[in-house]
Fold:
Amino acid sequence: MKITFLGTGTSHGIPMIACNCKVCASDNPKNKRMRTSVLVSNNGYNILVDATPELRLQCIKNKVTRLDAVLITHPHADHIFGLDDLRRFNMIQRAEIPIYGTSDTLNIIRNAFSYVFNNEPDPGGYKPRFSLNTINGNVKIGSLSIVPIKAFHGDSNVMGYRFGKFTYITDVSEIPAESMEMLKGLDVLVLGALRYIPHVKHFSIEQALHVVKQLKPQKTYFTHMCHEIEHEEDNRKLPSGVEFAYDGLVIDI
Structure:
C-alpha cells in the first residue's frame, strides 16, 4: 500500500492570503501546504480521501491518472469543493466514480453540486459523474476492506478511515473511547494537529501527541497544520516516531 500526501494544510492553505509570516514567505517547499488530502494506492486501486479545492493541481503535481473511489471525512468546503474535477477522471475512465460518506455529508454534497443531479442533458460533458454511497459499516474497494472510525470536529462529526494497519483522521478534536479501541495495533497513523495553541475544533500538537502516546503506533504523521508550524524547526521538536507530513510525501506500508 502506498500513501501520497496530496495536501497537508488548513482550510486557508499555506501561504495564506495577505500573510508575510516566516512560514507563508518561506522558500522551503515543505512549508507550502495545499488543503488536506491523501491518496491511498493498493493493488491497482487509487482511493482519494477528501477532494480539496486544489484537487486538479494536486493530481497534476503527483501524476495521478486514475481515481477509483472517493472517501469524504466531512462536508466542509476544503474537503469537498474539488469534486467537480472528477469529471476529468470520468472522461479518462469512461465511468462514474463512487463517493462514500455519512448520510449528512452526502446530503450536503447533493445540495452543493445540485447541477450533477438535476437530470438535465449533458451533451458537452461538463458535469462530473459520481454516485453517492452512504457508509453503513466497512467499505470494500477492490480487495481492501476500509473501516470507518467516528470522531468529533468540535460539535460536528468527522469520519476517519482505517486501511489495514494504516489509519487517517484529520480535522479532529476528540476521539471517543470506542473509536480509540479500533485504532490499536497500527503501523502508521496520520492525525490532524493544527498548532501549539488549543483550538475548539482541532487537536493541538500536545493533544495529538497524547493520542499517539495512548495508541503507540509504529509511526505517526501529523497533518492539517496551520502557518504557525515551520516544518524543519518544529519537526525537530517532535519525539521519535512522529513527524509533520508535507505535500508530496509518499510512504509505503
Notes: The radius of gyration is 18 Å. Helices lie at 55-61, 77-80, 86-93, 103-112, 177-181, 205-215, 231-235.
